[in-house]
Write a structure and sequence with these properties.
heterodimer; A: Rossmann fold; 2 domains; eight-stranded antiparallel sheet; six-stranded mixed sheet; 36% helix; 26% strand; B: alpha/beta; Rossmann fold; five-stranded parallel sheet; 11 helices; 9% strand
Chain lengths: 376, 286
């Protein structure tokens, strides 16, 4: 299904107009804003969960919130849209505080909003007072008519369930396992992976296919290594031991190959996304053999197509990019020198010309997304 | 003396299984042959092959990767027990290029020349490389893709578990001109079906996927490295190529290997004039 994201003046991003769907790669030089682009969606999720105050705190505070190249009068603006629904978050940094307003629209009708510079909000027929810990959109999903809520459900779900996976906590998983929980979705740092997998496997039938996706995916990524895993529970901790081909005894997770844990978390991340949802993984290639990377990409594409999931991958990997040789329109570049980002690779270069080459080679050779551009 | 044959392929399925199926085919020919572990590079035919590039760009193209792998395997070769006597590069023609195999071959020849001319600085060395290529290097096409040939052996589809729905492929039809008239397969597909991409009726791999999972609800009922490999590694090429007028591209490949081994082809018949052995080409066959 995909979505549209518009961003103005948020952190490293001056102007973003972006409509990704399916499995997409985001690439470009270090410091171009790839992770920031993905974190925008995380900001919106935090906004729904904790209101503007919480979202700002979790994204580094107000000091770095506004783009440094933005003018004094330029405000921060974030729009998330899907089908005919739109959610706008608008912020002006006015000393001494941050003024943030929201607006929710179905087609041309504004069904919820907040008055600028006040705590007064409206949700069709209801006036309410909101605090820094509230999101008007969240209130709207409670107060609107059932028909309107149904129309907004997909957009709300997209924002509420989005996860950006980065800074994964491998060491914690190896040494302390996962805290026992009833979680059904992987946390952004991956720390609940083992309890999540156990819940998928042992819980309701509808979640079992997620467990099978991960287990069978690991078998495909590591055909001569991984056989299976079993769960160990001690008090409030869940950990696993792995059955490895050629060994009679299972090995504990502390001794597990790093790439195996990387792939396990990526597969959990992909399986966590609800139907029609979206997720992002920052540099999924780290620690993986090229064969495992390609297989992981195959698995991600198969699941994205079957579940209508959008998978966004920030990457520097030629191996990842080569898997886009037949769909360069799903590769997006962030690089300086453009008014609007990201640039679809097929807008950057003629698709017919691109078809002659390996995208990984072109990126390595700095034909696009160059770390150092030639002098003009 | 053992003849060592090196395949250079572009797909994981072919890397794992094509040499095994050819070894099985030639096992009873009396030839003393060793199929070396195949090499794999990226394919250049998944996109429609466009106009020939200027030489300096052609050396960086996807086709040049395959060309470079072929050239280096022929000259100087990998050495020792990995030194090949004959090297065959094999790529799928793919549906997107089904109407222009001549151009695909011309494009590959251009890439080989661009690679040789840019890699070897002296004319004398280039002459030696070109001579080695003409004597020991080949390039073949599978048309439109390797799964086409599974339809030539009923047991291959069983091995691929492509038996969950009736197979409506007309076995009188040339496998390399694959087309299927199966109303259930061609009916509007569930959005989840991995075989729904068009042109469905001409796509052998999608039809295999359908036969593995007609409901279109499983994520990966057909995996090249599992079900595909089970079908390919013991594929009965004699059955696949039993109609002497059909499958001319694959027959040219078998014929080329047979000639390299100095044995009669186990699958005689009409080879594609585009990839049949010739005496005066850049490679043995093109």
């Amino acid at each position: 299904m995909g979505f549209t994201l518009e961003v103005d003046n948020y952190r490293a991003l001056r102007k973003v107009r972006w409509s990704p769907s399916g499995v997409c790669a985001i690439t470009g030089p270090n410091g171009a804003g790839k992770t920031t682009l993905l974190s925008t969606l995380e900001f919106l999720r935090h906004f729904l969960e904790r209101g503007p105050q919480g979202a700002v705190e979790l994204s580094g505070g107000t000091a770095s919130l506004k783009n440094q190249h933005a003018g004094v009068q330029d405000d921060i603006r974030l729009i998330l849209a899907q089908r005919e629904c739109l959610w706008l978050v608008y912020s002006s940094l006015r000393s001494p505080s941050l003024a943030i307003t929201e607006m929710v629209r179905i087609r041309e009708d504004i069904v919820a909003g907040q008055n600028p510079d006040s705590h007064l909000a409206f949700v069709e027929g209801h006036d309410l007072t909101v605090s820094g810990g509230d999101s008007v959109f969240s209130h709207a999903m409670r107060l609107l008519t059932a028909e309107q809520r149904e129309e907004l459900k997909s957009l709300h779900g997209l924002a509420a369930n989005f996860r950006l996976y980065q800074n994964l906590q491998f060491w914690s998983l190896r040494t302390a396992g996962s805290p026992a929980s009833t979680d059904l979705y992987l946390h952004s740092d991956g720390r609940n992976a083992f309890s999540l997998l156990r819940n998928w496997k042992a819980g309701r039938k509808e979640h079992e296919e997620r467990w099978l996706f991960v287990r069978d995916g690991l078998r495909e990524c590591f055909p001569e290594l991984f056989e299976d895993l079993e769960f160990l529970v001690a008090g409030q901790t869940v950990t696993v031991q792995l059955f490895v081909r050629g060994l009679r005894q299972p090995i504990d997770v502390y001794s597990a190959p790093h790439g195996l844990l990387v792939a396990l978390l990526h597969l959990c991340a992909i399986a966590s996304a609800p139907d029609g949802g979206a997720l992002a993984i920052d540099e999924p290639e780290n620690g993986l053999h090229p064969y495992a990377i390609r297989t992981l990409m195959d698995l991600a594409r198969a699941r994205a197509a079957a579940k209508d999931v959008t998978v966004l991958l920030a990457t520097h990997s030629p191996v990842v990019l080569n898997t886009f040789n037949t769909e360069p329109e799903r590769v997006y570049i962030l690089e300086p020198g453009h008014d609007t980002l990201p640039i679809a690779l097929t807008e950057h270069s003629n698709p017919e010309w691109l078809s002659h080459f390996s995208l990984g080679d072109l990126y390595s050779d700095q034909t696009f997304g160059a770390q150092r551009r030639p002098p003009q | 003396m053992t003849v060592r044959v090196q395949l250079i392929v572009t797909g994981e399925l072919e890397r794992l299984g094509l040499h095994l199926s050819l070894r099985k085919l030639f096992a009873s020919s009396g030839a003393d042959v060793e199929f070396l572990p195949p090499l794999k590079t990226q394919d250049f035919t998944s996109n429609r092959v466009g106009a020939l590039l200027p030489k300096e760009q052609a050396t960086k193209s996807l086709a040049a990767k395959l060309a470079g792998s072929l050239v280096s395997s022929v000259y100087p070769g990998r050495g020792g027990t990995l030194q090949a006597d004959h090297v065959l590069a094999v790529d799928d023609l793919e549906l997107v290029n089904a109407d222009q195999p001549e151009h695909v071959l011309a494009y590959f020849r251009h890439a080989v020349k661009a690679h040789v001319d840019s890699t070897f600085p002296t004319a004398a060395t280039r002459d030696r490389v070109y001579q080695a290529l003409a004597e020991r290097g080949s390039f073949h096409l599978l048309s439109p893709m390797v799964e086409s040939y599974f339809f030539g052996e009923a047991a291959a589809l069983q091995r691929a578990k492509a038996n969950r729905a009736p197979n409506r492929f007309d076995t009188a039809r040339d496998l390399e001109d694959f087309e299927v008239d199966d109303a259930a397969y061609l009916a509007p597909a569930p959005s989840t079906a991995p075989w729904k991409t068009e042109p469905r009726h001409r796509h052998p791999k999608n039809y295999v996927r359908y036969l593995c999972d007609p409901t279109g609800t499983q994520l990966r009922a057909y995996r090249e490295t599992h079900e595909g490999l089970d079908a390919l590694q013991v594929l009965d090429w004699s059955a696949v190529l039993r109609n002497e007028a059909h499958a001319a591209f694959a027959r040219a490949l078998v014929d080329d290997v047979a000639e390299a081994l100095n044995v009669p082809s186990p699958c005689p018949g009409t080879c594609s004039p585009l990839t049949a052995r010739k005496g005066n080409g850049l490679l043995r066959n093109i």
